[in-house]
Amino acid sequence: MVTVNLPLLEISGADYGDDEAEMIRYREAGTKRALAMNNRGPVRFGVDGKLDPTILEAYSREGFYIFEGVLGAAERAELERDVAHMLENAPATKDAPLDKQGRPALGADCQARTVGWVKPLSDPIGGTDASYGRHPAKMNEPTAPADAPEHVMQIVLGSLQFSEACLRVYGHPDLLAVAEAINGPDFTPFNEAVWIKHPRLGGSVAWHQDGWTHWDSPELDEGSHGFNYMGQLYGCDAANGLWVVPGSHRQGRVDIKAMVAAAGSDRLPEAVPLICAPGDVAITNRQAVHGSFANTSPNVRVTINMGFQRRKFVLGIKSGGVHSPVTTYDEDYIRQRSRMIMYGIDARRQHFPEETPYVYAPLAEADEHWRWSDAARAEIKDYNLQDIGI
Q1: CA 56, 61, 63, 66 torsion-angle sign
Q2: Residue 170 belongs to a domain
Q3: For residues 145-161, b (16+ Cβ closer than 10 Å) or e, as one string?
């Protein structure tokens, strides 16, 4: 049993009502299929320093991979302390300027959006025009427990400015080396967040594909919109974790609404859940069809999220405003945003001096400039105003 030291609400049970038995069967079948797949294991590099090609092949085939045991117990404890602080310093209610102790709330002095909320067990964006309508079908919404709050915190954006532990994960040499193997040595950032799927309260995220800029490009391939890492603090399962449709990243823009209609419900029969132990880090292609159900289980999911992309699909592209203000991603914009990789590398180097730091080629010539310090800590406030979303 995983011990959770977070200030979470004590809430009565919740389920899918008459649909719960079918949900249980769906989770069990999905778990069986997921564990039968050959796309999990530790991060492995050959004697040449390159990522094991069997990992690349499995990721390319399925659209996701589970890297096992990346984050050790000590690092997870540091992440847990930072996440606990985020929860304790969260706005007392949605959009409140103060936390429950009367202090300025997390992100209250930021220009960028930081804290996102959701009504318990709800799907706020499925079937709406939000984010260019990329969540076209609404998920089932179980009845919330009678003692549930009106909203729960679901996501903290720009998380690297609030957690040095998250920043150190961002500079993890193995994860950055994998990013290079998939996206090339000049890879660029996407965004970073901490997702919190509260037990018996966490809302769903409707089936979607993340990408939106390159679907009609003649250069479109399976990796045009990059990938996300999802580090699991406590692990995840079929009840509280992300589900992915294997191979869907290779199908271009998918008609998700038709998929849901054919299934007769939000339970896509071909999807599988991410089954992760504490410290595992999943990598998921942003073009893959994925989503998550409302968390009626007693187990919390905390995911340390961060993504990377290929420079050639970022440089010169005009943002549409989903993850950043409307702008064109030029060299200066990308360089400024990429400084967070350098800060992550140096923060990790200082904290884990026994590791060999990753060398990020695009900014390596100015390595001495990117030192993690009190001055840098102040400088990165609102850094996520320059997220790069394609």
Answers
A1: negative
A2: yes
A3: beebbebbbbbbbbbbb
Indicate the residue type of 201. Answer: L
Please report, for residues 33, 55, 66, 341, 354, the alpha-carbon distance to residue 38 in angstroms, rounded to integers and kept in the order given.
10, 9, 10, 31, 32
- How many distinct structural domains can be found in the chain? 1
Provide φ and ψ at 281, rounded to 5°: -125, 115
The first and second tokens of residue 313, run together, are 């699909």
Of the candidates 225, 217, 284, the one whose C-alpha atom is nearest the C-alpha of residue 58 is: 284
65-118 pLDDT per residue, tens? 999 999 999 999 999 999 999 999 999 999 999 999 999 999 999 999 999 999
What is the Cα–Cα distance from 155 to 209, expressed in whole angstroms? Answer: 19
Given CA atoms 209, 214, 218, 222 in this order, what sign does their dihedral have?
Answer: negative
Residue with tokens 């079908």: 137
| Domain harbouring 215, CATH code | 2.60.120.620
Alpha-carbon distance values, 230 to 9, 66, 236, 350 (Å): 24, 9, 11, 24
Q: For residue 309, is it within any domain? A: yes
Domain membership of residue 3 (yes or no) is no
DSSP annotation of 134: -
Query: Which residues span the domain enclosing 48?
Result: 22-386
Token pair of 209 as six digits = 């594909």
Q: Determine the Cα–Cα distance for residues 212 and 313; give it in Å rounded to an integer.
A: 12
For residue 199, give the H/E element and its range.
none
Instruction: Give the CA count within 13 Å in the CB-facing half-sphere of 158.
Output: 24
Number of residues that make up the chain: 390
- d(Cα 274, Cα 269) in Å, to the nearest integer? 15
- Kindly state whether residue 377 falls inside one of the protein's structural domains: yes
Taking the C-alpha atoms of residue 200 and residue 300, their distance in angstroms, rounded to an integer, is: 8
Distances (CA, A) of 11 to 18, 99, 108, 172, 301: 21, 20, 27, 36, 16
pLDDT of residue 322: 76
Residue-wise pLDDT for 107-126, tens only, equals 999 999 999 999 999 999 99
